[in-house]
Amino acid sequence: MEAESGHQSRAENAGPADVLFTGTAASPGTACGTARAVHSIDEFATVRPGDILVCRTTDPAWTPLFGVAAAVVTETGGMLSHAAIVAREFGIPAVLGIAGALTRIRTGAALEVDGTLGTVRQGLAQPGVEH
C-alpha cells in the first residue's frame, strides 16, 4: 500500500532482516517509543508516557499502564489474553508471545511496534508517533 505521497511506508519497505522479533499481532497499529521492561508491580512507577511496555504477561492490576504506554510487548499471551483485550480497548498496538522478551529487549532501546503485522523493529521514528 502506498501513502498519498507515492512513497511506501517504512514497514512495507522493511525486509525480514529489519525485524528484531515477531510475535502474535494482538492489537493493530504502529507506535514508536523507548522500551521499558517491567518485571513486577513494584516497577510500575518507572513507566513514562509513550514508553513501550515490555513484560512477561499482564493481569487486571496492570491495566493502568495501558493508559500510559504507547504499545505493549509480552512474552506470553494470544488474541484472547488480558494484554490483547486491554490493548485493543485502549487503542494501542500489541505484539504478544515473544519468548524471552524481558531478557532480549533492554530498557531504553528505541523500538517500533507494529501490532498489525506482529513485528518489533529497532525504532528510528519519533517516539509516540503512530504510523
Give a summary of the structure in a few sentences.
This protein has 131 residues and is of the alpha/beta class.
Question: How would you explain this protein's 3D organization?
Answer:
The chain is built from three helices and eight strands. The chain is globular and about 35 Å long. Helix content is 13%, strand content 27%. It has one domain: Glucose Oxidase, domain 1 (3-Layer(bba) Sandwich), CATH 3.50.30.10. With 131 residues, it is of the alpha/beta class. It starts with 9 loop residues before the first helix and ends in a 9-residue tail after the last strand. The N terminus is likely disordered. The protein has an eight-stranded mixed sheet with strand order 1-8-7-3-4-5-6-2, with helices on one face.
Keywords:
eight-stranded mixed β-sheet; Glucose Oxidase, domain 1; alpha/beta; 131 residues; single chain; disordered N terminus; 8 strands; 27% strand; globular
Helical coverage, percent range: 10-25%
As residue ranges, the low-confidence spans are 1-13
Q: In CATH, what is the homologous superfamily?
A: Phosphohistidine domain
- Count of helix runs: 3
**What's the rounded overall pLDDT mean?**
87
Strand order of the largest sheet: 1-8-7-3-4-5-6-2
Q: Based on helices, strands and strand pairing, what is the structural class?
A: alpha/beta
> At CATH's second level, what is the architecture?
3-Layer(bba) Sandwich
CATH class: Alpha Beta
Hey, roughly how much beta strand do the residues contain? 25-35%
How many structural domains can be distinguished in the coordinates?
A: 1
**Taking Cα atoms only, what radius of gyration do you get, to the nearest Å?**
14 Å
Question: Which series of helices and strands comes N to C?
Answer: HEEEEEHEHEE
> Could you describe the largest sheet, including whether it forms a barrel?
8 strands, mixed
